[in-house]
Design goal:
alpha+beta, two-stranded antiparallel sheet, 3 helices, about 20% helix, about 25% strand
Length: about 90
């Protein structure tokens, strides 16, 4: 994924999660997917890439939690959401 990120950066796109946390690809601290719905098997595999120019207009960025989405059986992924004041 780090290679894809570099290619997208060259094209003016940035991952909201990595921009906001300052973490590098592969060092994600928060899961977006739980393999076999298992709380102990989190992976960060979902992303929102946006043009870098949008960063100055970002209002919010959120990732859903395991407890809100997986525990009740809604999904094995947590949704990512972002709001912009364009």
């Amino acid at each position: 994924m780090a290679r894809i990120n570099q290619e997208l950066l060259k094209r003016g796109l940035v991952s909201l999660y990595h921009h906001g946390t300052g973490l590098s690809f592969g060092a994600e601290a928060q899961g977006t997917y739980w393999h076999h719905w298992d709380r102990m098997k989190p992976y960060h595999i979902d992303y929102i890439f946006v043009p870098t120019a949008w960063l100055k207009t970002m209002g919010s960025f959120d990732i859903g939690s395991f407890d809100d989405w997986c525990a009740p059986g809604l999904s094995d992924h947590a949704p990512l959401s972002a709001e912009f004041n364009l």
